[in-house]
Amino acid sequence: MSSNSSSNAGLDSNAEPQTQKRFESITVRPYRAADRQAACDIFSQGMAFYGTHPRIEALLQPAFIAYCQNALATDLSNMDTVYDAEKPVVPGGRRGNFWVAEAQPGSVVVGIVGLEAKADGDCELRRMSVSEVARGQGVARLLIDALEAWALQQGFRRIFLSTLDKMWLAMQLYPRFGYRETHRHDFSDDVPSRPRGVANIVYFEKHLPVPSAAAEAAGTSSVQSS
Is beta strand 158-164 parallel, antiparallel or unpaired with respect to 122-130? Predict the structure, then answer.
């Protein structure tokens, strides 16, 4: 998928699989405006991995295309508004954030994840994606650790997320990191134009501990240094 067309991207069924690389180091840091193209490319490639995979029914492929295009046109085009780490967007002053995983050598962005602030002490984990070139190197763990540390520091009490049951890597990933499935419903409930019985939207959550004052202070320094 060409980098200069990501904002209008579909899913390229002719895209070549990416060759995995072994990086010297991978660190997580807050998103910068210069990361936008790389973030959009990684998200698009992640959707293409599923949307064009032989395990995915052809009936679902248009839904992956629509989902990808909507994400690129909405929150991924308005990162400073949706994931603003400087300005509280919910009562209580809690803030969201967005992170990238950066690999060396080359300062290559190989993973992304966002936290969107919600009301009542909740926040949503969004846009989690790891480049194929960096899978198997602990990138997802680094991203989730950074997100959870920020959520604790901000005083969120629950992280929730949703995914499709057909996204088998995501379905395996979140339970390993302590996220519990809460419920699921037919994909067509949200997208009436799709036939029933093709896929389910699955919801996960993780409740966070109430930190002590000392833990909050330690969390602040660790998140800012990531």
Answer: parallel
225 Cβ contact partners less than 8 Å away, ≥ 6 residues apart: none
Q: What is the structure's pLDDT at 105?
A: 95
Q: Give the E-state strand segments of the chain in sequence order.
A: 25-30, 97-104, 108-117, 122-130, 158-164, 180-186, 200-207
The C-alpha R_g of the chain, in whole angstroms, comes to 17
- Is the distance from CB of 91 to CB of 119 less than 8 angstroms? yes
**HSE-CB for 93 with a 13 A CA cutoff:** 3
Amino acid at 47: M
C-beta separation of 110 from 89 below 8 A = no
CB 13 within 8 A of CB 46: no
Dist CA 95 CA 86 (whole Å) = 7
**Token digits of residue 31:** 């998103």
pLDDT in tens, 181-224: 999 999 888 777 777 888 899 999 999 997 665 455 544 433 43
Ranges of H-type helices in the chain = 36-51, 61-73, 79-82, 139-154, 168-176, 213-224
Which tokens in the block code for residue 25? Answer: 């180091």
